[in-house]
Amino acid sequence: MQVFSFIVERFKIVCIALAILCYTSVDNAYGEEIDVASTVKNIRNGIEQLAAQERSISCLEINQDVYLDVGTKAGSALLKVHRSDNKIMMIVRQIRIIRNASEQFSVKQAKRSDGWLLSHYHKTKSDTVWKGMVGDTHLATYPLTALTSTWTIDHIVNDTTFKPKTAKQISPTRIELEYEVTTTEAGSPSNSAIIITGKITFAKDLNWLPVRSVTTTSNNIVGTITTTLERDANVLDNTIVVKSASFSCGEPKSQFYNKSVFTYRLVADAKMNPDEFNLDFYKIAAPEDSDVFEDKPPFNWVLWISLGFVCIVSSVVLAIGVRRRLRS
Predict the structure, then answer these.
(1) Are 168 and 33 in contact (CB under 8 A)?
(2) What are phi and psi of 84, to 5 degrees?
């Protein structure tokens, strides 16, 4: 009996040792670099499928919560996004922001019974114009492919200056890619090249969906901005469903930290009349000077509001410093 117990104990020790050895071997395999070229090829193929699925979503309801400090909600907004082929419409209260094959515009109503008024009109396909119109709701209009508040993942990996640096297998289904892009936004001064660096975590089991991204954007005008994106998604009926996404700018507790949390809900049987994606539907004639904005960026409200906020904060800090000096 003692011999049997001795053998059992020794067997347990051997099993534990083998388990530790296997775990260590598997753990060491993760974090090691893998082939970058084949990884980028797989990412691009997956992104094509993600973009196609994104275009097929006829209606999405999104709740956006905005935080200016950790745990302190500053406000909320309910958004609706409709798509028809390559056309897209975002509805915020009585405002509709629309992009079709040849024009981008926004219309609004003071009341539901009132007629529509034209707010913005641009006869252009420019992505820069669209970014300026939708502002920080990029993750609402592109729930599967948005990477920052202005960039989608396909724009990053297909940019001519895209330079993948390393690719690592960090878990059985997760790949981390480190990259760099140097580009210039259309309409920006030639000396304002934007340098984008970051690390993206892709989910191989979700068509290479970017589930986490830390991006640093810098140029000579706005300085350096670090943003973080995280997505919570799963597969339902062979379709990737994003339940929520969070996008933060700056470090928590820092002076200029802000964060938006998007919660998504698919709306069935809510297809929009295709005519509603065209300006004619709203009984508004296209402005005669519709080509004025074709090669010029729109007025960037987000940028100027941010700069105004910085000026206000700076003036408050300066006033406090002056008062302290006068008291001393």
Answers:
(1) yes
(2) -150, 110
The list of the chain residues with pLDDT below 70 reads: 1-29, 71, 184-192, 220-222, 289-328
Structure-block tokens of residue 54: 């994104």
Nearest 5°: phi and psi at 120? -140, 150
pLDDT in tens, 46-86: 999 999 999 888 899 999 999 887 767 888 989 999 998 88
CB 68 within 8 A of CB 74: yes
313 within 8 A of 254, measured Cβ to Cβ: no
CA distance 318 to 170: 46
Q: Give the Cα separation of 323 and 286 in Å (integer).
A: 55
- Core vs surface per residue 293-313: b (16+ CB within 10 A) or e: beeebbebeeeeebeeeeeee
As a whole number of angstroms, the distance between CA 258 and CA 149 comes to 12
Max Cα-Cα span within the chain = 100
**Structure tokens that stand for 229 in this block:** 């994106």
Angle at CA 193, nearest 5°, toward 188 and 198? 125
> In sequence order, what DSSP letters do the residues of 223-278 get, joined into one string?
EEEEEEEEEEEEEETTEEEEEEEEEEES-TTSTT-EEEEEEEEE-TT-PPPGGGGS
Looking at residue 147, what DSSP letter applies? -
Please choose, from the candidates 82, 79, 80, 86, the residue with its C-alpha nearest in 3D space to the C-alpha of residue 52: 86
From CA 53, how far away is CA 49, in angstroms rounded?
6
The amino acid at residue 189 is P
